[in-house]
Design a protein that fits this description.
Elements (H helix, E strand, L loop, with lengths): L1 H53 L9
Length: 63
């Protein structure tokens, strides 16, 4: 009888540990996703600034 109880308790404990591991991995994935999105926004902002810096520096006299 004691083995059966221990088996059930172990199975429940494994289930809880599995849920915790999934939650921790999800948080890590969310953090990496946010870092990636921030990197993309940074690159886009740099491209916008580069375009703004180049405006007005060249004159096209042909019409």
């Amino acid at each position: 009888m004691c083995d059966a109880i221990n088996s059930v308790v172990q199975a429940k404990q494994d289930q809880v540990y599995s849920q915790i591991n999934v939650a921790v991995m999800r948080k890590g994935l969310d953090a990496v996703k946010l870092q990636g999105e921030a990197s993309v926004r940074l690159i886009q902002a740099a491209a916008d600034i580069a375009q703004q810096l180049g405006k007005g520096l060249q004159f096209d006299a042909q019409a």
